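Lecture 7 notes: from sequence to structure.

We start with a single chain of 294 residues. Read the sequence below before looking at the structure.
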Amino acid sequence: MGGRHSILKLRESQAPDYSEIQFQMLWLLVLTLPCLGGSVPVTSGTELMGIIGGHDAAIGAWPWQVGLWFFHPTTSEWILFCGGSLIHPQWVLTAAHCIPGRNPQARHFKVQLGRVRPSHQGRRQVARIIRHPKYSLEKGVLGGADLALLKLKAPVRPSNRVRWIRLPPASSSFPPGTRCWVTGWGHIAPGVPLAPPQNLQEVEVPIVADEICHWQYLTEGKVIKKNMLCAGGEGRGTCHGDSGGPLVCKWRGTWVQVGVVSWGHEFCFANFPGVYARVTSFLPWIRRHIRSCP
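Now the structure, written as tokens:
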């Protein structure tokens, strides 16, 4: 899926009206650390992702969900254009293609925490941006390694609305048919944006076998790489407008994040699963950057 975002724009001086508009840009998806607490609850021919077949999420249901805001210097507008997840008191996981440009500036990003609707409140400043070194701006999402880390300027205190998600152990497995959940603020159907007040959407999706996903997308001329994971289908999954969000599953009674929303079929066909960055493929890279807890 490729360079079109479904995004919300708010001028810093305006009261939020939660209206959704189109904004087109050429924008080239448990590491169980000792201190990570458990939580309860761009390229041609591809599209960025949102939620299809879901329903409103309750406040606090997914306390690790974040909204990624970008400040566009030309229009002086803050734009909610991607999702992400809090994986540590001071670190957010999102998709690499959610970070525009070759030299992104941390001051142009903010992270919304603890809210199910777009808001200027509860946003945190970003201190550092790290895209995965194997992500290619030229190849975009189809090249794989669609993952990025954002370090917040200050650690977050947990609450009933804000908590970090565990990452899965490298040895964990989630066989085809495993029921997982994905969340986001994106389109609810191709060309159909989420209606005001844009409440966070949630939807349950099954893990899809690598072989099935591979052959489905091969008919579209796209390759599913080993560091990608597929989930969805049956009219449920992701569509345009909200990349970078978390795919979470239960592992031994605890929620863990197994994927990051990356791409999918251009027209969000119901029988095509969404494609995610496979989190277990990147645990060593995450470990190198999150070395100790504050």
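Helices lie at 210-218, 283-289. Keep this in mind for problem set 3.
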